[in-house]
């Protein structure tokens, strides 16, 4: 009768080689999962750098799916008007402003004073810093899915002027939080 043989055992070097291979496969799987998560994050978020003086903050974290509430920062695509093109170029960068008025709020104007639900939120200037005539923005009830966006800066180009007007959901990029 032949002697009993032990089960075949891999030499230690071969086991280490297999362990490295499985470790590499695991690392690759983790990288792919992280890449997919990063792509998903990128599709739902952004970071905006503000280059104007109208807001005191210069960096914003943007959530593309968060519905704005009063006081939030909103980033939106500015309309293409001659005034905006003259100041910001053919393709204006995204604008960031605060939500001062919500759908259903009442916007009114008394001379240069703009009010929302009776509270003063802004004052109109007759002309831009370059001397262009500034047309007053809309008044009345803010439509559903639209917002009155503004800043405390006296030179802010926002909903107080017709070139911006009410900002509606179709032009909103996202709702943001200031980072810096």
Automatic annotation (TrEMBL):
<feature type="domain" description="Peptidase S26">
    <location>
        <begin position="21"/>
        <end position="176"/>
    </location>
</feature>
<dbReference type="InterPro" id="IPR036286">
    <property type="entry name" value="LexA/Signal_pep-like_sf"/>
</dbReference>
<dbReference type="Pfam" id="PF10502">
    <property type="entry name" value="Peptidase_S26"/>
</dbReference>
<protein>
    <submittedName>
        <fullName>S26 family signal peptidase</fullName>
    </submittedName>
</protein>
<dbReference type="InterPro" id="IPR019533">
    <property type="entry name" value="Peptidase_S26"/>
</dbReference>
